[in-house]
Design brief:
mainly alpha; two-stranded antiparallel sheet; 64% helix; transmembrane; O-antigen_ligase-rel_domated; O-antigen ligase-related domain-containing protein
């Protein structure tokens, strides 16, 4: 099954105002899609520990691009001639999220903070601004389906690069991530090393990600989008290439030997099985999955057995008991400041504890208001993608919307197993997907004025 080179909606004229039309495919030298593509590539191709010197982890090259996106969107909103026409629900949920963060920030400042907590709160606020910049520009800045799919292709290929690094790590036994460096940058910390796991000399790898759990969940999120292009890319060569990337990400995922990664993959398969795949695709994916597991059993004996034991021995796993033991501590923190929390980024692991649950971490640092904002971001994104799925008539549009739904559901589920917003590669991928949920809602809107959104300066010319 293939797709046409251009989406039919992209061929529509832009309805600027009454009896005034333009083209939705205006060529620009630099647009939001271009900067988002650059951000995604830097996010995946460069090690997560690589930053601009003298800056914190908020100074990762990819995150600096994200900050530029925030500034771009804000300047566009401040100038009345550059405000985007048409509604966008993601703007409201982003405003709620930002207001919740700022209220928690003020509440934390008012209670008085030690230096480490104050620095952590400042760092978190910078990350939040960069995060929301990606959400807003992905939702408002996509001019058409063609540019959105272009960013998606970069995401798939970038995930393939990360998967290739992980496979190379396992095949060579060399941590090649230490050799990846961009001029003008420096490592702010040690890259994820090879961590022994199980018997038979097995070890887990993280590719260019910060942690093994983060790496495995990123691979799970990338798989449905790689399958999308393997099914709907306009040329045979592009479909074959996307199929290879899908296979690479499927092979790389278990190399992290992560229970969370397997859970994320199961969630992706379940969502796509229900809303995204017909029976032929389900059969093909199942068959390829069996082949991948068979190949891993031959190439890496004991790998699948080790992963299986991680689920069968849950009751004896200290990491599980450690997570449940945190509930009492979380309850104590929550009772002290239930509404606005201690302040974003103030639960410093060196001072308190490592809380491997983003929902609980948000309750402690942001209170019930922060928890509601985080839940709203996910639920609104999920709703917008579901509405776009219902509106879509083309199989490729429905498949893409289902893939976006799977990414948001994965984020919601795995946020109960690790502190997702502390890992910038994962969290900014989630920001991109949430923004794209707003974009596909806009592209499938029945009103042409919303679907073909433009800016006021162009409408007034």
């Amino acid at each position: 099954m293939t797709s046409t080179a251009l989406h039919p909606v992209d061929l529509e004229p832009t309805l600027l105002q009454e009896r005034t039309y333009g083209t939705r495919r205006r060529l620009t030298r630099i647009d939001a899609a271009g900067l988002l593509s650059l951000m995604v590539f830097l996010l995946y191709a460069l090690p997560a520990q690589l930053i601009v010197p003298e800056l914190t982890y908020a100074g990762r090259p990819a995150l600096l691009v994200a900050f530029a996106l925030w500034c771009w969107w804000l300047l566009a909103r401040l100038n009345h001639q550059l405000v985007m026409l048409g509604p966008q629900p993601m703007r409201w949920v982003v405003m709620f999220y930002l207001m919740a963060t700022l209220m928690s920030f003020i509440a934390g400042t008012m209670r008085g903070l030690p230096e480490l907590e104050r620095n952590g709160m400042d760092f978190n606020l910078i990350l939040t601004i960069e995060f929301l910049g990606v959400v807003l520009m992905a939702a408002d800045g996509m001019p058409n389906w063609e540019r959105l799919l272009g960013v998606m292709r970069v995401f798939v290929w970038s995930a393939g690069i990360m998967a290739g690094v992980a496979i190379l790590q396992v095949a060579s036994g060399i941590n090649v991530v230490t050799y990846i460096k961009l001029p003008g940058t420096a490592f702010a910390g040690d890259v994820a090393d090879f961590q022994p796991r199980g018997d038979g000399g097995l070890f887990r790898v993280a590719g260019t990600a910060t942690h093994y759990i983060e790496f495995s969940t990123l691979m799970a999120m990338a798989i449905p989008f790689a399958i999308h292009f393997a099914r709907f890319a306009p040329s045979t060569r592009a479909r074959v290439a996307a199929g290879v990337v899908a296979l690479m990400t499927a092979v790389a995922l278990p190399l992290a030997i992560s229970r969370t990664g397997v859970l994320a993959l199961l969630v992706v398969v379940l969502v796509m099985f229900i809303w995204g795949w017909n029976w032929r695709v389900r059969y093909n994916v199942g068959l390829i999955g069996i082949v991948v597991m068979g190949g891993l059993s031959v190439v890496k004996p004991g790998l699948l057995g080790t992963i299986k034991s991680m689920f069968t021995s849950v009751g004896e796993d200290p990491s599980i008991s450690g997570r449940t033991d945190d509930y009492t501590i979380v309850g104590n923190f929550f009772n002290q400041r239930p509404w606005l929390g201690r302040g974003p980024g103030t639960l410093i692991p060196d001072l308190y504890l490592i809380l491997d649950n983003q929902w609980l971490l948000t309750v402690v640092t942001g209170g019930l208001v922060g928890l509601a904002a985080l839940a709203a971001l996910h639920l609104v994104s999920l709703t917008l993608a579901a509405i776009a799925l219902r509106r879509s008539t083309r199989p490729e549009d429905r498949h893409l919307c289902a893939a976006l739904i799977s990414s948001v559901v994965v984020s919601m589920v795995v946020s109960a197993t690790f502190d997702t917003l502390s890992f910038t590669t994962f969290s900014f991928t989630v920001a991109l997907m949430c923004g794209f949920c707003g974009a596909v809602w806009r592209f499938t809107h029945p009103r042409a004025a919303v679907r073909t959104s433009s800016v006021r300066w162009f409408a007034n010319e």
